[in-house]
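Morning - magnesium ion inputs below, output right after.
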Amino acid sequence: MNDTSPADKSKVLIVDDNPTNLSILEEILEENYLISIAQSGAQALSITEKFLPDLILLDVNMPEMDGFETCRKLKSQNDTRNIPVIFITARVEPEDVVQGFKEGGVDYITKPFNHSEVIERVQTHLKVQQLIRQLESKNVQLKELNEIKNSFLGMASHDMRNYLSAIKGYSQILREDKKELPEETKDQFLDFINKSSENMLKMVNDLLDVSVIESGKLQLDLQPESFKELINHHIMINQFFADKKKIQFQSDLQDIPKCLIDANKIGQVIDNLISNAIKFSESGTTIFISLKEEEGKLVFSVKDEGPGISDEDQAKLFQHFQKLSARPTAGEASSGLGLAISKKMIQAHEGFLSVDSQLGSGATFWFEIPLKK
Ligand SMILES: Nc1ncnc2c1ncn2[C@@H]1O[C@H](COP(=O)(O)OP(=O)(O)OP(=O)(O)O)[C@@H](O)[C@H]1O
Ligand SMILES: [Mg+2]
């Protein structure tokens, strides 16, 4: 009837002072369960210290410690509290049955017992126990997810409030003091408003990406693309910000035949790696960008001469909302989402994203993806 291996079998402890009862119960249950037996309440308690059963069949009338007292002790200990106890006894008075349930038993079988009934009851309570365990572990998982979500919302709204406050503040001054303000100041305020709304839009887009990724609905639109062109496009977009910080690009990009990628998503990763290199480096430094093909894989890297990343920070780098020790060197926006999203985008392409860095010696972020032509 049961073809589970011994390791998968549920463990049942049978407790009875009568050896004949013990061997009958053992015989009817041993085919499907791992059985251990005890001839007294004290022995049962000592066995549960080494062998934690999934269910206990417990006689009531035993010398010294009876079944009710044994059950009470089991229910008072953390390790054994949740093990279902079925009383199996010759005591058939209604008040005995009631006491059995009051002591924490889940069921009460009277002797002489029907073999099939014992098997069915044991099976039912083991199933219920298994469902309870699953429910408990789901609850723990849900609690953790809820905490992550709360901290996520907290951080997102904190950043967004900063952007909104800037937009509100500067637009209010512009409206109230329009006439007195010099043209130059007005332009500057408009720039602040524009920059803050851009940052906020990027953040909202990042959050949407995170929610798509987390719900497992990230879909790739794979098209044959030239990787070199894609990189050059993103170098060009970032050139303006690099120039502002007097940061130079040096690129070494191998010509690689068109390959199947989702250019929007890979473009987002390239952009985040290049913009991070600019954002966290001091002016006057150089950023090295390389693309090559290696053993059927496409390898892209961005190396900077910035502050580098400690081992401790590297462990957190690819998680959501990680703004680490390196801070933007020219007041750029930073929400700590870029690398977490990038990692998932690369994984969706069956590749991986990683970093080599030592504190004080710059960082090299690189990813490789299989070359699909
Ligand atoms: N090249 C780098 N050198 C040093 N530290 C870096 C580098 N790139 C990332 N970091 C650190 O890792 C953190 C996370 O980077 P990530 O790209 O995820 O977020 P961000 O750039 O702060 O914000 P955004 O969501 O706009 O990308 C950064 O805040 C920074 O502290
Ligand atoms: Mg970033």
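Note: The longest strand covers residues 286-294.

O.
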